[in-house]
Give the backbone structure.
Amino acid sequence: MDGFSDNDISHVVDADKAHVWHHLIQHKPFETVDPRVIVEGKGMRVWDAKGREYLDAVSGGVWTVNVGYGRTQIADAVRDQLVKLNYFAGSAGSIPGALYAEKLIGKMPGMSRVYYCNSGSEANEKAFKMIRQIAHKRYGGKKTKILYRERDYHGGTIGTMSAGGQDERNMQYGPFVPDFVRVPHCMEYRAQWDLSGEAYAERAVQAIEEVILAEGPDTVGGLCLEPITAGGGVITPPEGYWPRVQALCDKYDILLHIDEVVCGIGRTGTWFGYQHYGIRPDFVTMAKGVASGYAAIGVCVTTEAVFEMFKDDAADPLNHFRDISTFGGCTAGPAAALENMRIIEDEGLLENTTKMGERMMGNLQALMEKHRVVGDVRGKGLFQGIELVTDRATKEPVAEKDVGAVVAECSNLGVIIGASNRSVPGLNNVLCFSPALIATPDDIDQITGAVDKALGKVFG
């Protein structure tokens, strides 16, 4: 790191070890080993405090740095905006806030309004609150229930965990908020019914309808789903699933909330994952790739019809959406998001994502032919995963520790990959890949080459 001596870096590591509480990590091992400290990033690569270089195949560890590291034009845009106006509460507008909202809506036919906040969890909370308030405003307080899907994830607050379909993530954090109701997953590889293809899709949506009928259609106000399930196993929906979901929402007057926190802003080769499927959401939430991690920003986008529900009786002082996000008023987020979107457009990164996604899929399928431990390969664009099993016939998952060993071996080879972990009991067996949208053929081959070697070492 420029300007830092070895002694300075050693002090940083010691300070981190002594005082930082890291995310998702058991800290007991840090009593004898140092935590990983990342000190620099450029393009697809990062360097740690020991000077080791890694190819980052998960865009910052949690699917965020979509346009890569070291983008001076984003940093400059943020710096210039902060000097001009760093913050004003979201009850007023700002130049970057207005301009990014306009540009974003231009990528989302049928959507109309942008509500700013500072994280994906918070963006989902906003949609939940809107659905609940609509239930009271229009339905006498009856349509308050929000359905969510097994294996989907929507955030780490108590509210969003109430809509959490990953039981291990929820353990020890309850009790949760009432009137969140789970529906079955749509993962064909681990089908709940002896069906496949469109027949499986039809049955999976029928299962959602069964929940609606059991709860009472007049009590269900919203359905919250990821377009492609992310941390729950990179689950692509079966053919015909999404049009049936849309029809179900139309039939029972249920607001459709699509959580694009992972899939949004180019990750799957379109601006948003839902745009592959021709559906018409009422809410779309996003965060991670919106500014590629150069500033904190979350967004809840709604249709004009939803927006109009909150101003239909201006004389009522409680009728509007009475919510604020303090750092939704920070101008750094939309300033960074504007430049982030310009880069994606100017560099043709949606097209690159599709092209490199095809290469990655081909490479992963080749690994499936070579390694019996690979049971399934799935994904879209530069958002893909492979499920590891001890036996392809029984689909028995490998142990989570063995998945961790593959991740560790890839790291030893200079490639950082992801994996489902501590999420779905007994099924944390999926390796996850989400390289930046700037990935080259050589990057893709290096990632899958490391996985090839790691699978061979761990499983023989």
Summary: Residues 199 and 233 are 22 Å apart (CA to CA). The first strand starts at residue 38 and ends at 42.
